[in-house]
Amino acid sequence: ALHYINAHHHHGYKHALNRVENVNILSETANGEIMLTELDLLETKCPWVSPTPVESCPVRPIIEQAVEGDCKVKLQKQNGSFTVLGVRCKSEPDSAENIHKVCTTCPLLALLNNTQVTHAVDQALLHFNRDNSTVFYRLHEIGRAQIQG
């Protein structure tokens, strides 16, 4: 299920499994069992486009305001093999309160559409492309941003 989630997740960072919270068997048929699982996921430091296997990706520490994911996964188990039938995930950054319990001076994540963030990214990319004659980069996405005071 984790590999399925990471393969179909096309923004941000890969996720690692923190724990399986629930497994409920919904039905048993001649074709196997249908089950619903709840997974608690942790953000890694590997962008979703990275070829690095998720097993080799370090989990982002809390002081970097990691994003946590909760997924409900519907699976079919047939002859010892699992097939993902559906996934519904939600994710959100760890709360400022939790971060400041551990690190009172750590910067928090900024909204990705914050004008300071988008302006800084645009300027950095413009400067890089202007000074580089061998390659030209175009922004795919802003994955994380912090504004430091």
UniProtKB/TrEMBL annotation:
PROSITE patterns: CYSTATIN_FETUIN_A. The keyword Chloroplast does not apply. It comes from the Eukaryota. Its main location: secreted. Residues 1-92 form the Cystatin fetuin-A-type domain. It is found in: Secreted. GO terms for cellular component: blood microparticle; extracellular matrix. Gene3D superfamilies: 3.10.450.10. GO terms for molecular function: endopeptidase inhibitor activity. The keyword Secreted applies. Keywords: Disulfide bond, Glycoprotein, Repeat, Secreted. This is Cystatin fetuin-A-type domain-containing protein. The lineage of its organism: Eukaryota, Metazoa, Chordata, Craniata, Vertebrata.
